[in-house]
Amino acid sequence: MDGRTCRVEPIDSTRHGGALYAAYATDREGRLWTYLPWGPIPGPRNYARADRCRPGQRRPRGIHLASGKPFGQASYLNIDPTAGSIEVGGIVYAPAFQRGIAATEAMYLMMRRAFDELGYRRYAWQSNSPNARSRAAATRPGFTFEGIWRQATVHLTIIGRGVDSLP
């Protein structure tokens, strides 16, 4: 998916792993992985294991600047063709690109593909309830708050107990 400021394509760990690892390494405080059930990825060679998915689960997409420099990733997940529903998640952007034009355009491109090309009728974004930055990011492309799913998931890497989700 080509936009004006970025490109979104399936992750190829051989081509993208080293550059994504380097981009994520700029997160000196380690905040990129706080609310994700995976990561941080310990090195470029380990990226191949992180981009695998089962059918109907994570479908990782690398997000690149128009120049070709990778700066993040997002995934289609919780795919339910029968219900016409698909979700975006597993969103990780290098710190320098968070809240930027390319980051917002990447979400627009993925949303446009889900509706216009793949024919889904519902496009969802979930975040863990304490993740204020994700909630704010969801408002930029037009998502609306629908409620809280109490104790929706358990992410042992986050806090070791159930986590409320905001659908």
General description of the model:
The protein has helices at residues 13-24, 47-50, 101-117, 132-139; strands at residues 6-10, 59-65, 70-80, 85-93, 122-125, 127-128, 149-154, 162-166. By secondary structure, the chain is of the alpha+beta class. The protein has one domain (6-126, 135-145): 3-Layer(aba) Sandwich (Aminopeptidase). It has a five-stranded mixed beta sheet, with helices on both faces. Strands 6-8-7 form a three-stranded antiparallel beta sheet, with no helix packed on it. The protein is globular. Residues 158-162 have low confidence and may be disordered.
Fourth-level CATH superfamily: Gcn5-related N-acetyltransferase (GNAT)
Instruction: Let me know the largest β-sheet.
Output: 5 strands, mixed
Mean pLDDT: 81
Ranges where pLDDT stays below 50 over 5 or more residues in a row are 158-162
Shape annotation = globular
**Order of strands in the sheet with most strands:** 1-2-3-4-5
Task: Predict the CATH topology.
Answer: Aminopeptidase
Number of helices: 4
Beginning-to-end CA distance, first to last residue: 25 Å
* Strand composition percent: 25-35%
CATH architecture: 3-Layer(aba) Sandwich
Q: Structural class of the secondary elements? A: alpha+beta
Count of DSSP E strands?
A: 8
Keywords:
8 strands; three-stranded antiparallel β-sheet; single chain; alpha+beta; 4 helices; five-stranded mixed β-sheet
